[in-house]
Prior knowledge:
Distance between the termini: 51 Å
Order of helices and strands: HHHEEHEEEHHEEEEHHHEHHEEHEEHHEE
Strand order of the largest sheet: 2-1-5-4-3
Shape: rod-shaped
Helix content: 40-55%
Oligomer: single chain
Number of strands: 16
Largest sheet: 5 strands, antiparallel
Strand content: 15-25%
Number of helices: 14
Amino acid sequence: MPPSPLLRLTQRPGLLGALLFAATMGLAAALAYHAVHAAASHEGAVEASLTHHADIAAWRFSRDARIWLGYGMAEASDQLGRAIAQRAPLPGPEILHRVLGEKDCDCMSAGFSRTVFRVTTDERATLTLLGEPLSERAKDSLIAVALAAAADTAGRQGAWRWQILPPGEPRLTRGADVVLLWKIGDSPRSVRAVYGMVVDPAQIERPLRGALEDVEFFPPSLVPPSFADSLVRIEVSGPNHLPILEVGPATRSYIGTDTLGRSYGELTVTAAIDPAAARLLVGGIPPARAPTIIALLVLTVGVGGGALLLLRREHRLARLREDFVSGVSHELRTPLTQIRVLSELLIADGFRTAAEKDRATGVIHRESLRLTNLVDNVLEFARLRRPPTAAPATPVSLSGVAHEVAESFAPLLDAQGNRLELEIDGDVEIPGDRDAIGRVLRNLLENAVKYGPPGQTIRLTVVRTDPLGGARVTVDDEGPGIPPEERSRIWQPYYRLERDRNASVGGSGLGLSVVADLVRLLGGRAWVTDAPGRGGRFVVEFPGSAAPRRGSP
Length: 553
């Protein structure tokens, strides 16, 4: 019974790794989301707490400001009431200078006023003023405001006998000036006149600064009183948004507001808490976790990506190993089959003539050479995977090694009708390891025989490159050559060109890898290019006696 599609899917290489990577990324994303959500929640709670403290600070200052302002206005109202009560005809506005100019403090003092005035509440509603003149529009507005104040009997916070108008009202020459009103009468419903004065905002600022000295913004157990003023910024302004008081650090964080009320000029108090207070009030503002979380996510992606690359590389190596096993099996099966069949015929005396016996013996010899070369490559490759051990370089006759390798390859060349041309520049001698150099030449020749067409001419050239003993070996074949984009990859273990795998050309994928490793250990280099005419040219350069060697295989 064939396996189900689901079973085939689960057996695909790398699928488990991809699923684990996806699960890891999903878990990391979920943890990051919860971490960001928790950090945002914590930060929101801290901001809400500090904003609540700012609201309390604004409310506490407003409370003390009403006390200070109310005290000054009530004291002036009492003094005016006592001075005017015994007079039948109402005195003019000059009484403000006489009565309020002798106050112990300069709060609501007529000595600092710009203009003093009186508005009678009879049918004529006469306005009398002293000091800086006012425009006719301002006068009319002042009369209207005074009469409205006299007629206002509604209960509210603050005494009924006095009122502070919002800064700039009613249509004063200076937009920041403040009008102070006192109602003179026996009761709220029998106001005889309204006295007042136009003052600089400093008259209001002074009692506000007095309130600032008394207010307690935070519980002393949390913040020392001597330190509290440096953490809170207080701003007091009217409806026209012109500032009357600005004290404290320059901060606009965590803002709370409160209003003093209509009797106090609709003044608005804004309290802003410096972020430095967070450490004392709520244990500190949580640091931004976004960079850390992003870094962890990037690290997770990097680790996951690295794991995927390793899995991909492992899958590729597994495929290469499978190709290697398949290629080696093919390389072993063919010569072993011929050796077994021919040896059985020789044992059974199955050949009719001596020529047939000689031909069978030659085939057995040739195939045994191929098997020996294959086994040697596998053993050499395994030995090269271990750390190399240093060995002294001995003089090696590269010309002699080339002749020996060419002679040993004669049976393999004759079997496919190939011809080998040797071009050797005299007696070339290099320092190195004779076996390693012979292995390099054998692998290059075997590669040319295996992938070249039958009947080709293979050229093995050995030339001297420098007076110190350096030499270059080239092997030219008439095969299809190596594509430029593949020329750096053919030296990797197990790697074979796609065209060779599809053409069922036998091979282990180790020959050129062994060449590259041996040449590197001998201090040389190897590369491939196009041969003149057609085919590929494999080039190996060996260093001379003065060049450093990297080790010995």
